[in-house]
Task: inverse folding
């Protein structure tokens, strides 16, 4: 409310200048897929004065991420896959008509009419109709339980069919076909892939690569049938269908999915005499204009120089160009697209660059195949051996970024180009690309079209971390695939400018913890020896050893005292207890959610009494037993385990406790069962090794008795689900946790926590709690939300999978330790004497033991130190 | 002092020490930390951490800091040179280094 006479009240109301424009432009977009939506986002940014935008969307839902469609079967919902930020249309002022297919165009009148009879005038019409799945002309392909793989509706139908099927066949062994096979496998079906060509992914890989890819895919339980031409589908005997092949063989199956390629949806163009490409698609010029200058076409439906593009990156590029074209930028031009691809199919890396098949006259190739590790790599070089023309990588695509840049920028090859794909030996570094070799115009990030020059400019303006580079250039902010190269460019530029930032872990590894994590994960490194040989020097130290051990545990989750791993552990992890000032250890059995039965409490009490331990209740709602000598630990744990307890991991940089209030079960204010959820979460994440300790809290209502907002992960019950807070902390520097999602159901909550924890594990520095990590996170809370909720880096699935691996491989370390005689033997005070350490001396205080102070100890002991 | 004049005690088999770790041996009632470090051999220093008075140095993590082969005390993380016993952070907290050698698979220690 304004007081009369206050300054604001004196401003006279009137039309805002600049808002009104006499030149209105009606833009109608046909098709709201990934490219269509990208176009709208660009348009919104450009803020074209007077633009009135209407979107016709045939599907019943807004644009979603078709690239990650198979994740629908791995539990993602249509909402998860949506590309449209809430409120996007309202804020942009665009009109959206869902379920509205454009049926006809009247070019003379400049109108478009929908199938339900609505006619809309346009000044500019943008066609982003995409493509449709090609179904080969096979008799019987229209039978029930035969599907295509394109829309969420298709997937819903497949899901329903999957529930009543045992076997499923995918027709088509290309990129999409294999995605689809993953989907069927995720549905729990016996999965087959039927391919017409002699190999899988015939377009991207060669015979040898195809063979390795095939054996990898088959090892994952998918049966592959190549050189099979389906001629008819009839009734089956043991299953619903029988697919009959041209060679006389057959295959029976309950459901079939056709994924044999896509065709541009150019029917609107054909009906209206717009030019089309020689192999279909709406013909466009370099500015995305069709043969009618008022009509533009972008994405998979468009044909540029008779070429259509089935990848999202060229589609996005066209969307950017079309939007700029409409904004009056006549310079923006499409220059074709590189069709190199890198992807992970069912966990198998596959990449293809340029002339993968070596079709260039005179070219020669280098090939490397490892049939044990199932890795195949090939590079194709020019006749003069100076330039890289193409490459195929199967099983491991680490070199993709380097090779792609070499091919795209015609960088001179090293003298022995074979070393580009041979595994490094004797610690010799691979010939790197050397960011200096790249021209300023080299496109480093293809998702966001960021050049080397732009990254260097950002460094010049003060961005010296990858987070800052991402924030100001967007390089590496979408798929993340180019981040190593972006980093390389950034570092080279920093070196050139004389800036230096050293985030090396220690003198043994010239890497940050995050880099080390990636090296270990990507290189599948499982031992410190190997890590040191490949990436480090010297013997290691008390910084890098526990860091590596923690990363090994996060990645592979082997028993922490197994073999060489034991020698990397801090004393606490080595003896699975918390070392105290006198060299004794404290023992903490896990009590998930702080719940303990009277029998359990009695058992803990009896152990404490028997071994004379000091007993204290911890802040994490469990019991800590102090004063155990090394050689007592196995016996103590034997008794605790017999009473049903597990390791509480109080000694580890790992999940500690999930604190809870009593919740709706007993509390008259409780909204939900906080104890039940706390127990479930503690059991899920127990044993997870992380850069630092992790604490949870779960409160059953907003009174927040569990103090969840002071925890790394805090959960508070609402009337409609659970609110999730992250990155809180008590301790030295208290920090309130921040809300990142509201009213989640349990499944969504767990998924988000999986992602959060794994993202933290992956990116935090050594000994960095979530609160400090969050404070240092470039892009802050929005970035974190984008990564975790919108999956902006496209790693959501991977994070969940990695967490699931940790969950699935959990073991109570104490149980393993006491049952392994070799490990158990290490719990002794002296290697050559059975006696206990006589230097450990307790005195009594308030009815319990405590370590004797120096002046209370027998004089002889101090004498010995001096001796 | 030549090694013939030293009073050697066999403390354990080499296999009793996990490579890259240490054990504590009792040699003439003195607590001695014996470490086995890959190619860098076997080393012995006092096991008692002068800063805390606790008998724990054998439980520390070993490695190298520059030229020094070291163990980090598990309590306060100060580093001790395994060849000299010198505490790198606080020389006044240095410990004694002892003689150690491996014969066959037997580890022998002689107090310095």
Result:
């Amino acid at each position: 409310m304004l007081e009369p006479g206050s300054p604001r009240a004196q401003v006279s109301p009137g039309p805002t200048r600049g808002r009104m424009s006499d030149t209105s432009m009606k833009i109608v977009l046909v098709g709201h897929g990934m490219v269509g939506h990208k176009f709208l986002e660009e348009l919104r940014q450009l803020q074209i004065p007077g633009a009135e935008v209407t979107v016709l969307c045939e599907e019943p839902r807004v644009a979603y991420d078709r690239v990650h469609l198979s994740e629908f079967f791995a539990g993602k919902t249509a909402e998860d896959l949506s590309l449209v930020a809430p409120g996007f249309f309202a804020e942009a002022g665009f009109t959206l008509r869902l379920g509205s297919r454009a049926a006809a165009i009247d070019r003379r009148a400049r109108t478009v009419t929908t199938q339900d009879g609505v006619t809309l005038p346009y000044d500019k019409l943008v066609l982003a109709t995409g493509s449709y799945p090609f179904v080969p002309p096979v008799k019987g392909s229209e039978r029930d339980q035969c599907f295509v793989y394109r829309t969420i509706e298709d997937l819903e139908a497949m899901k329903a069919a999957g529930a009543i099927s045992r076997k499923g066949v995918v027709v088509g062994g290309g990129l999409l076909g294999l995605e689809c096979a993953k989907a069927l496998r995720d549905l729990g079906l016996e999965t087959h892939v039927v391919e017409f060509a002699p190999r899988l992914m015939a377009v991207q890989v060669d015979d040898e690569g195809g063979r390795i890819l095939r054996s990898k895919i088959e090892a994952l339980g998918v049966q592959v049938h190549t050189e099979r031409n389906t001629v008819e589908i009839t009734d089956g005997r043991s299953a619903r269908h029988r697919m009959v092949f041209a060679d006389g063989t057959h295959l029976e199956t309950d459901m079939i999915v056709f994924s044999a390629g896509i065709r541009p949806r150019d029917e609107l163009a054909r009906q209206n005499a717009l030019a089309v490409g020689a192999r279909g698609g709406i013909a466009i010029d370099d500015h995305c204009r069709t043969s009618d200058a008022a009509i533009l076409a972008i994405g998979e439906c468009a044909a540029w120089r008779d070429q259509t593009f089935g990848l999202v990156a060229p589609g996005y590029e066209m969307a950017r160009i079309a939007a700029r074209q409409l904004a009056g930028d006549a310079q923006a031009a499409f220059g074709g697209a590189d069709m190199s691809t890198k992807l992970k199919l069912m966990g198998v890396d596959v990449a293809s660059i340029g002339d993968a098949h070596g079709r260039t006259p005179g070219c020669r190739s280098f090939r490397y195949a490892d049939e044990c590790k199932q890795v195949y790599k090939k590079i194709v070089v020019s006749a003069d051996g100076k330039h890289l023309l193409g490459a195929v990588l199967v099983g491991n695509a680490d070199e993709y970024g380097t090779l792609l840049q070499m091919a795209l920028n015609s960088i001179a090859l090293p003298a022995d180009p074979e070393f580009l794909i041979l595994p490094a030996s004797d610690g010799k570094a691979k010939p790197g690309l050397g960011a200096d070799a790249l021209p300023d115009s080299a496109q480093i990030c293809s998702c966001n079209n960021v050049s080397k020059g732009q990254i260097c400019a950002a460094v010049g303006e003060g961005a010296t971390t990858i987070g800052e580079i991402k924030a100001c250039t967007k390089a590496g902010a979408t798929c993340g695939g180019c981040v190593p190269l972006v980093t390389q460019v950034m570092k080279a530029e920093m070196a050139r400018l004389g800036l230096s930032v050293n985030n090396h872990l220690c003198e043994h590894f010239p890497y940050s913890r995050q880099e080390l994590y990636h090296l270990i994960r990507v290189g599948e490194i499982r031992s410190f020896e190997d890590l040191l040989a490949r990436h480090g020097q010297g013997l290691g130290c008390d910084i890098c050893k526990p860091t590596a051990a923690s990363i090994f545990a996060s990645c592979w989750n082997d028993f922490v005292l197994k073999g060489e791993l034991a020698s990397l552990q801090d004393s606490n992890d080595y003896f699975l207890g918390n070392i105290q000032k006198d060299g004794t250890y404290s023992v903490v059995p896990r009590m998930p959610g702080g719940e303990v039965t009277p029998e359990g409490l009695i058992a803990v009490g009896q152990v404490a009494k028997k071994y004379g331990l000091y007993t204290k209740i911890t802040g994490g709602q469990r019991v800590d037993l102090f004063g155990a000598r090394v050689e007592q630990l196995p016996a103590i744990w034997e008794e605790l385990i017999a009473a049903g307890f597990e390791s509480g991991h109080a000694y580890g940089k790992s999940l500690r406790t999930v604190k809870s209030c009593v919740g709706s079960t007993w509390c008259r204010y409780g909204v939900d069962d906080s104890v039940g959820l706390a127990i479930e979460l503690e059991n899920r994440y127990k044993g997870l090794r992380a850069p630092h300790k992790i604490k949870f809290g779960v409160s059953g209502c907003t009174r927040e008795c569990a103090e969840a907002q002071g925890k790394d992960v805090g959960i508070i019950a609402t009337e409609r689900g659970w609110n999730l807070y992250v990155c809180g902390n008590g301790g030295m520097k208290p920090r309130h946790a921040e809300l990142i999602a509201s009213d989640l159901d349990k499944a969504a909550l767990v998924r988000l926590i999986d992602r959060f924890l794994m993202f933290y594990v992956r990116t935090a520095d050594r000994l960095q709690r979530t609160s400090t990590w969050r404070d240092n996170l470039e892009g802050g809370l929005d970035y974190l939300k984008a990564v975790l909720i919108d999956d902006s880096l496209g790693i959501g699935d991977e994070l969940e999978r990695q967490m699931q691996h940790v969950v699935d491989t959990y073991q109570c370390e104490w149980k393993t330790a006491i049952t392994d005689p070799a490990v158990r033997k290490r719990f002794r005070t002296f290697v050559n004497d059975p006696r206990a350490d006589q230097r450990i001396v307790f005195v009594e205080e308030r009815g319990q033991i405590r370590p004797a102070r120096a002046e209370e100890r027998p004089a002889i002991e101090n004498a010995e130190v001096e001796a | 002092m030549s090694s013939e004049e030293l009073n050697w005690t066999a403390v354990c088999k080499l296999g009793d020490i996990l490579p890259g770790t240490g054990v504590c041996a009792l040699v003439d009632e003195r607590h001695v930390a014996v470490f086995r470090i890959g190619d860098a051999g076997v080393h012995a220093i006092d096991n008692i951490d002068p800063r805390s008075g606790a008998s724990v140095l054998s439980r520390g993590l070993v490695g190298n800091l520059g030229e020094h082969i070291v163990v980090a005390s598990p309590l306060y993380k100060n580093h001790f040179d395994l060849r000299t016993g010198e505490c790198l952070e606080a020389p006044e907290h240095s410990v004694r280094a002892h003689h150690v050698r491996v014969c066959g698979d037997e580890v022998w220690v002689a107090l310095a």
